[in-house]
Amino acid sequence: MTAPSSCQMDHSTSLLAIDSGNTAIKWGLHDGLRWVEKGSILQGERKMLRHALQQLSPFTSVIISNVAGRSANDDLRKLLDPWQVHQRWITTQTRQCGVHNGYVFPERLGCDRWAALIAAWRHLKRRCLVVNIGTAMTVDVLSDTGEFRGGIILPGPKLMQQALANQADGIRTAGCGKFQSFPDNTEDAIFSGMIQALSGAIEKMYALIAFNMDNPSPMIVISGGDAALVCDHVHLPYQIMDNLVLEGLLAIARE
């Protein structure tokens, strides 16, 4: 937990943003000008969140994205009740903050993906790939007019490796492995295959957006807890944006 900021906070505008994902809960406290606190905790330890929030400077409102199911929703509501502040639980919209949702059933798009798309559009205002790498990896397409054109979902790094180890009896690994172009042992073969699959999916989607939208150089925005594992193997123009969902929540709160 980082130490509280020594700057003067305007408590009348302080916002707590919470990104409740499949594996972890991330939060950030924004004072109206900048993020003054950020932290994270595993979903399995979310009862410890109350203590972490008690260390924060006062906040007047909360905005939350939750994709971890009803249990996480119920627990977070109970944890936040003592603060007696307005809670806003975001849902995916057809249009918001300049982004138009092109999903066939807009409400079925994960609200974390929606917040990330809004953050990327707010930052770039141009066509791009929005990549979030965590438990799952999502690669979503934004057009030059802020239209979400669709995207793909695949297992993230850890899930991909675990699934292979759990389902293939002949594969057992003693370590994490490292990337090699031509792996010569099982650990490196699994790790390198995961990297090639994830980076290859990003590059494939990049080729599609460049070809179908007549733009040879769309930008890639990469975020997520496992972004560092993959991004060095993406040989295309990209930007790292930490906590993309929190940035999207901030934009939604300000709309």
UniProtKB/TrEMBL annotation:
GO cellular component, one term: cytoplasm
Entries under InterPro entries matching the protein: ATPase_NBD, Type_III_PanK
Active site, renumbered: D112 (proton acceptor)
Signal sequence region: none
Molecular-function GO terms, alphabetical: ATP binding; pantothenate kinase activity
The UniProt record lists the keyword Transcription: no
Main location: cytoplasm
Keywords assigned by UniProt, alphabetized: ATP-binding, Coenzyme A biosynthesis, Cytoplasm, Kinase, Nucleotide-binding, Potassium, Transferase
Example of a GO biological process term: coenzyme A biosynthetic process
Cofactors that this protein relies on: NH4(+); K(+)
Cofactor note: A monovalent cation. Ammonium or potassium.
Residues reported to bind substrate: Y103, G110, C111, D112, R113, T186
Residues annotated for ATP binding in this entry: D19, S20, G21, N22, T23, A24, I25, K26, T135
EC code(s) of this entry: 2.7.1.33
Reaction equation(s) it catalyzes: (R)-pantothenate + ATP = (R)-4'-phosphopantothenate + ADP + H(+)
Pathway linked to the protein: Cofactor biosynthesis; coenzyme A biosynthesis; CoA from (R)-pantothenate: step 1/5
Coiled coil: none
Compartments where found: Cytoplasm
Function statement: Catalyzes the phosphorylation of pantothenate (Pan), the first step in CoA biosynthesis.
Similarity comment: family membership: Belongs to the type III pantothenate kinase family.
Subunit structure: Homodimer.
Designated name of the protein: Type III pantothenate kinase
Organism: Nitrosomonas mobilis
Gene name linked to the record: coaX
